[in-house]
Amino acid sequence: MPEIAEFLLWPALACLVLTGIHAYLGLHVVERGVIFVDLSLAQVAALGSTIAFLAGYDLHGRGAYVFSLGFTLLGAAIFALTRDIKSRIPQEAIIGIVYAVSAAAAILIMDRLPEGAEHIKHLLVGNLLTVTPREVIKMAGLYSVIGFLHWLWRKPFLAISRDPDEAARSGYNVRLWDFLFYASFGFVVTSSVSIAGVLLVFSYLIVPSVAAMLFCERVRTRLAIGWSMGTIVSLVGMYVSYKFDLPTGAAVICVFGAALCLMAVFKRLFPACGCPS
Amino acid sequence: MKFLNLFVLASLFCAAPLAAKVKVVTTTEDLAALAREVAGDTAEVGYIARGYQDPHFVEAKPSYLLKLKKARLFIQVGLELEAGWAPALLTSARNPGILPGRPGFMDASEGCEILEKPAGGLDRSLGDVHPLGNPHYWLNPENGRLIARAIARRLSVIDPDNAGKYKANLAAFETRLTGKEKDWDAAAAAFKGIKVVTYHNSWPSFAKRFGLDVVDFVEPKPGIPPSPAHIHSLIARIRAEGVSLLMVEPYFDQKLPKKVAAEAGVPLVIVPPSVGGEEGIKTYFDLFGRQLELLKKAGGK
Questions:
Q1: The CATH number of the domain where B211 resides is what?
Q2: Cβ of A119 under 8 Å from any chain B Cβ?
Q3: pTM
Q4: First vs last Cα of chain A: how many Å apart?
Q5: Which of A7, A111, A116 comes nearest B65 by C-beta?
């Protein structure tokens, strides 16, 4: 074990950073009922990189980053503008459409590229096991800033996620806060996906907050449950990946699924467990 | 007495790493097969991607890092075949001896005959164009010979005490290869000159060596589904130009090639491109033996 610890240290730290921000953002996402928004924004960001690539920028350079960030903000604006509570069109539909169209557009562009399509595929795959210390530190710094801003403005952010009508009545500019939410969210998701891949980021976002909802209504407690679950699952997933020699990201995701099942069964057996709503 | 025992025990432990065999890790089973020919019993050879996997896409596992950490020599196919995963594994393995530029890092493509190198004047505005050429060069046995020679040279630098053994192993391999190549050429004579369509552009070296004429591909751009127009014209072309068969690697979805082959009325041949790509292909010699056998059966006159 000690020998492998050297290799799993940074991936494990990366998982903890991911848990920290995504278990929190997941609360908002589940509250808003926009479950697949992260896949959609990640795909939009990848489309941005693809276009940058077509325009002759290096895929890992500053130019491509600016493009992918710009596209993410564009996606954020689309989601903020289409959140019309009176409309009968569910927002998930818009999210799905944005996902499908940007994925397809990326394919069309890759078809025009002489080579390098494979490189773009790697944008959405990421690789947890080979994360570098530099990447983890950068990610931790970035997410701390975003986490701090969300803590500072927790009131409007929570209000617009929970009940936009009520928030509008109390004088908040819902469209603006929605845009800020999706922009910061897109920023986080894009950099997480490049490190851990879409599947893993999706799991970190959704599973802890769903698990916490089984037991509790209060935001603070749900956050505590989500963070604990994310941390334990990350470490168990790392161990399973080492023990049975499995691809690390996929192992963590399956442990997430197993943990959620266990928690659901537990809740069935002991319905009294959890905080009163 | 007890102290002496401890001393003996301790010296045994200290001596063990010195006596340990040199460990070689390759990215693919093809390179491992060649390295084994040179290493014999003297060095230990491991690999990362299995022969039945698409070497473009490999999911990192913890054991890969452990292997690389212990390796004294790392060998890759290069030409960006493993660009999606090998560099990241190398940096994460924390083994400075096998990083690019060090004697423990070997790119097998150096010195080999590489086909389809774009000739000069690359248009960089089209993006990150790879001026490196087709990475499936191990499918020409003469390149296999060159790779084996390069491995022997490199092992002799890393492990000079055993240089003599590596040299002898290489000589034995080369003799055997020369003999086998005569057999293979004889087998290939049965289908020399036939026209074929392959799934991807992974067979130019093989085609050149054994006299196949590759006229088109099912999926000209890896990973991008071909357009209906391409499939349509491909089927017409197979019929019009008298293409004899369609070759596809076992790790691709067979649905589309099957359909094309059926509509065009030519046999679909699933040809493993790598050692380990099929049960029973364990050596570099097995690989060509099996490939030629499959082609002879399907396309022989």
A1: 3.40.50.1980
A2: yes
A3: 0.85
A4: 44
A5: A7
Indicate whether B150 and B223 sit together in one domain.
no
Which residue in A8, A54, A123, A127 has the most chain B C-beta atoms within 10 A of its own C-beta, making it the best mutation to test that interface? A127
User: What is the count of structural domains for chain A?
Assistant: 1
ipTM value of the model? 0.80
Expressed as residue numbers, the domain containing B177 is 18-112+131-182
CATH number at residue A223: 1.10.3470.10
Q: B204 and B176: one domain?
A: no
Nearest by CB to residue B62, choosing from A113, A122, A245, is: A245
- Across the interface, do B89 and A110 touch by the CB < 8 Å criterion? no
Task: Count Cβ–Cβ pairs < 8 Å, chain A vs chain B.
Answer: 92
Flag whether A163 is in a domain.
yes
B259-283: pLDDT as tens digits: 999 999 999 999 999 999 999 999 9
Is A274 a member of any domain?
no
Q: Do B89 and A130 touch (CB under 8 A)?
A: yes
How many domains does chain B divide into? 2
Same domain for B167 and B194? no
Nearest Cα of chain A lies from the Cα of B59 at a distance, in angstroms, of 6
Chain B residues within 8 A of A113 when measuring between CB atoms:
126-127
pLDDT value of residue B129: 41
pLDDT confidence of residue B221: 78
Structural domain range at position A94? 2-269
Looking at per-residue pLDDT, the higher value among B3 and B90 belongs to B90
Other residues' Cβ atoms within 10 Å of the Cβ of residue A126: 20
Q: Give the DSSP per-residue string, chain B.
A: -HHHHHHHHHHHHHHHHHHSPEEEEESSHHHHHHHHHHHTTTEEEEESS-TTS-TT-----HHHHHHHHH-SEEEE--TTTTTTTHHHHHHHTT-GGGSTTSTTEEETTTTS----PPPS---GGGSS--TT--S-GGGSHHHHHHHHHHHHHHHHHH-GGGHHHHHHHHHHHHHHHHHHHHHHHHHHTTTTT-EEEESSS--HHHHHHHT-EEEEESSSSTTSPPPHHHHHHHHHHHHHHT--EEEE-TTS-SHHHHHHHHHHT--EEE---STTSSTT--SHHHHHHHHHHHHHHHH--
pLDDT digits (tens, 9 = 90+) for B176-200: 999 999 999 999 999 999 999 999 8
